[in-house]
Amino acid sequence: MNNEELITQLTTIQPNLLPETGGEWPNFFVEAADWPKLAQALRFKDDLFFDYLFCLTCIDWKTHLTMVYHLSSTRHRHNIVIKSKLNRETPEIEAVSDIWRTAEFHEREVYELFGVNFLNHPDLRKLILPDDWVGYPLRKDYEDPINMIKL
Amino acid sequence: MIDTPGGGILSGPIDDVINWARSNSLWPLTFATSCCAIEMMSTAAAKYDFSRFGFEVYRATPRQADVIIIAGTIVNKMAPVLKRLYDQMGDPKYVIAMGACATSGGPFFYNTYSVVKGADHVIPVDVYVAGCPPRPEALLHALIALQEKIKAGTKRERIDIDGNKIIEKR
Amino acid sequence: MIEEIGTTEQGDLIINVGPQHPATHGVLHLVITLNGETIKKIEPHLGYIHRSIEKMCESLTYRQFIYTTSRMDYLSSHINNHACAMVVEKGLQIEVPPRALVIRIMMDELTRIASHVLWWGAMAMDLGGMTPYFHAFRERELINDIMEETCGARLTMNYQVPGGVMADIHPNFQRRVKEIIKQLYKKLPEYDELVTGNVIFKARTQGIGYLSKEDAVSYGVSGPSARASGVECDIRKHYPYGGYENLNFKEVLHTEGDTYSRYLVRMIEIRESISILEQLVDNIPEGDFQAKTKAVLKLPKGEFYTRVETARGELGVFIVSEGGTTPYRIKFRSPGFSNLSALDHMTRGQKIGDMVAIMGSLDLVIPDIDR
């Protein structure tokens, strides 16, 4: 399907999506509470069939956090980008590791680097940083005067 | 071994033989963290063979190794592991810091929160090799420099846990 | 450092493999729960080479951050640089001259051959044979000599820059590539005799570590490990970039999904890469090797994503730019991270002696996983 058909399909499933064009792939902003239902529809509906989650990350805009999910379909070869705005003090979103198994490791990484709490994740612990690390390094307000030597 | 100023009496030649034997059969530990590992493997392969200098066999356990070639970046999570490996090696033991990352943090010096800026913050280093990654010839030069250092007979000064200064002959 | 890792029953044995281990291809710490000799659960502990590259790149300019990716997956360093240069060109709408495109593809394919050959030597060494390691390095040294003449370095070459390549190829380049094609055609049957047809190797790798097609897609596995399970995921074929659309090569697919088919896929891919080199070596177009770019590069506000096929799988570079000289956020979607997440699934119920073979067939490079 091309970008216009994808936009019409997704806005019928989830009416309050905010599509954004201009990039290579259509971007959609979804509320954190509506994400689980949309994820199920994206994965299992036959004409969408987004079975390959190839990038899961988070961006720290200084007033809020944004989760970004890049999805692709091995059957129809179309790609979309789903984004979700999160509150900076209590960032919470539902985990999708039961739908796409690759999300398990990616969500653990976002949890330790940004502090986003994933609800119903099977095993939410630190993955890359040492176990006693304090703070969320990839946030913009992270200061570490001992280790980080400024240029 | 009588220790007089200017060197030992009657013990010089024996020391020389022992040092010659030690320097020509140093067995390295298989320790490599990142990209310098490939250049170390190239040095061990057939074109720049380092077993002609005595580094014949790689040992997997630190108890059987003489020299540890730190090839790659040391990060905060790996530093206790490196210290534990070094403590398990038996005396006399030598350390070569290979590459820019092990010497001083290398390309990862500025603005990183997790890199130890130089392996000598963790264990004492004998020879430093520059390069990112160093050519196999540079690593061979470092190995020959280490062998000459051993043949010259060195003393190492160490401060132990109570604050006493100990001078060891190596 | 072992925390609760789930239910362990009476009589289970928990062992640590790594971080310092001759067979883990880097510093990987695996906590394995065993019942006798059967694996119940493998849990990777990462982070022993986490060099905080993503945070560091937020303070480097668009010409400087490319060198850090050479050190991420150091066995396909040209291909990583290609991805970063492509994302900057996409943002600035720079058109790369045809000569630079062809040189980039040739360097990429030489890197892919060097990486697969080294993987072959390392995998055979993990399973106990020392000889293939020396044969592999003989071919790899020839490729390193080609790289050194043109790019100046053997392992981490910062040769591909936004706009093209940094310098023109050496006059000896075409002659040397033809020589190495001849040498590889002579030596690849030797590789097959040594390892591929070996009865012991086949007994140790056939039927071990099965990964089905749906699981491969769900775990995000890409590259030769997924193509051995039947997933069609070659980025060079399905989302072509940088001149690959004009070339004639096959995507190598097998359906068995076990360790032996992952091995065979890589051996056939070496031959496909050689055929790409043969198509290009006499047809390098004349012209510029680098497009004219401004001295200081500033990407416009927005988000940009490129995907390339490295020797291990799909590498994605995601840049969020706010209009300055440095990126606001960079994310590297590395192939090893997702390939490793499938290791637990593939080794359930296998014996501990097979774990090294399965891990070797996934071709992991640990700095790529930890970034």
Commentary on this structure:
Chain A has a domain at 3-94: Beta Polymerase, domain 2 (2-Layer Sandwich), CATH 3.30.460.80. In chain A, 22% of the residues lie in helices and 26% in strands. Chain A contains three helices and seven strands. Chain A has helices at residues 3-13, 35-44, 103-114, and strands at residues 18-20, 27-29, 52-61, 64-72, 79-86, 92-94, 117-119. Chain A is elongated and about 50 Å long. By secondary structure, chain B is an alpha/beta fold. Chain B has helices spanning 12-23, 36-44, 79-88, 99-104, 136-152; strands spanning 2-4, 7-9, 67-71, 94-98, 127-129, 155-159, 165-169. In chain B, helix 1 (12-23) runs antiparallel to helix 5 and helix 2 (36-44) crosses helix 5. The model of chain B has no long low-confidence stretch (mean pLDDT 84). With 371 residues, chain C is α+β, with helices and mostly antiparallel strands. Chain C contains 15 helices and eight strands. Chain C has helices spanning 53-56, 66-70, 77-92, 98-126, 131-151, 173-196, 199-205, 213-218, 224-227, 235-238, 259-280, 335-341, 343-346, 355-362, 366-370, and strands spanning 13-17, 29-35, 38-45, 160-161, 164-165, 302-309, 314-321, 329-333. Chain C has a three-stranded antiparallel sheet. In chain C, strand 2 (29-35) and strand 3 form a beta hairpin. Classes of the chains: A alpha/beta (151), B alpha/beta (170), C alpha+beta (371). The A-C interface holds A 22-25, 51-55, 57, 59-60, 68, 70, 74, 77, 100-102, 104-106, 123, 125, 127-131, 137-138, 151 and C 1, 3, 6, 46-47, 50, 52, 54-55, 59, 214-215, 217-220, 222, 231-233, 238, 302-305, 307, 314, 316, 318, 320, 328-329, 331, 333, 337-338, 340-341, 345, 370.
Superfamily (CATH H level) name of the largest domain in chain C: Cytochrome-c3 Hydrogenase, chain B
Fraction of helical residues of chain C: 40-55%
Low-confidence blocks of residues of chain C: 1-5
Helical content of chain B, roughly?
A: 25-40%
**Mean of the pLDDT scores of chain C?**
88
Beta strand % of chain C: 5-15%
CATH architecture of the largest domain in chain C: Orthogonal Bundle
The total beta strand count of chain B reads: 7
CATH topology of the largest domain in chain C: Cytochrome-c3 Hydrogenase, chain B
SS class of chain B? alpha/beta
How many domains make up the 3D coordinates of chain C?
A: 2
Unreliable stretches of chain B (pLDDT < 50, length at least 5) are: none
**Which oligomeric state applies?**
heterotrimer
In round numbers, the mean pLDDT of chain B is 84
